[in-house]
Specification:
The protein is built from 10 helices and no strands. The protein is mostly helical. The protein has a domain of about 170 residues. The N and C termini lie close together (about 10 Å).
């Protein structure tokens, strides 16, 4: 039915912004949150309840939450775009990505899940190898005291190595995941292309992302102090800041392709 119709190219170009923009994103997140604070708090509660219910399912719960998280996140980001453009946000926005964007967003979650699993396997394998080699060498000495000290020393080194590897491997993965849902929802990007563009956007804006993260750490500590109740506000503000950072780095262009609108024209 759409034969012969030109398909617009997906624009995934990024731009470098000033380091200080990292603080501006939080300010924008707060502005978008205060436009409808109670609705955003309700959306946050519903989001958390869904995640908790899914995680309670034995075995498949952890997989389901990881796969569904980018789908619900895409809906939240759609709500922030609606507010940013003068519209209203409702709880229904949380489920706005259960449409033609559903499968690509699930694939983003799947890629993240697989990569996370591989990172865990690599870290676990290195720790087991280190402990095994050291323990074997200690056993060959026949000295129980030396064996105990060697195992403790190796365990400490293994934990430090695990933390280092977790950072070296985990941070690039998070960079590839950070803007991916927004790029899928707003730019109709393919999952892998979205994750590649997300990594590129995070990389060339490492200074602003660092400022943003440091401020986020301070806010997280402040939100935790009042029995954790501050997270009901910080969580939607954080989500709004993600939208603001996406808009700042990738622009506010319309969707490259609008399947539903296109269908109505025929």
């Amino acid at each position: 039915m759409n034969a012969g119709r030109p398909v617009a190219a997906v624009d995934l170009s990024t731009r470098s912004v000033a380091a200080g923009n990292g603080s501006t994103w939080w300010g924008e997140g707060w502005r978008l949150f205060t436009a409808a604070p109670w609705v955003w708090i309700v959306i946050t509660i519903v989001f958390v309840v869904i995640m908790l219910l899914l995680s309670a399912i034995p075995i498949i719960g952890a997989f389901a939450t990881t796969l569904l998280a980018p789908v619900l996140s895409g809906g939240v980001l759609s709500g922030f775009r609606a507010v940013d453009r003068g519209g209203e946000v409702t709880v229904a926005h949380l489920f706005a990505s259960f449409n033609d964007r559903l499968v690509p967003l699930v694939v983003v979650g799947l890629v993240y899940l697989v990569c996370s699993f591989l990172i865990v396997v690599i870290i676990a394998g290195i720790m087991v190898a280190m402990i095994g080699v050291t323990g074997l060498s200690a056993l060959l000495t026949g000295d129980p005291m030396r064996e105990g000290f060697a195992m403790l020393a190796t365990l400490g080194i293994g934990v430090l190595l695990a933390l280092l590897l977790g950072v070296l491997l985990g941070v690039p993965l998070m960079m590839a995941y950070w803007f991916a849902p927004a790029l899928v929802v707003f730019r109709n990007a393919e999952p892998l292309a979205a994750m590649k563009a997300s990594f590129r956007g995070s990389l060339i804006n490492v200074a602003s992302m660092l400022v943003y993260s440091l401020i986020g750490l301070v806010l997280a500590i402040a939100a935790t102090i009042p029995f954790g109740l501050g997270w009901f506000v910080l969580t939607p503000v954080w989500a709004g800041s993600v939208y603001a950072s996406y808009k700042d780095i990738y622009g506010d262009a319309e969707l490259a392709v609008e399947p539903q609108v296109a269908a109505q024209r025929f």
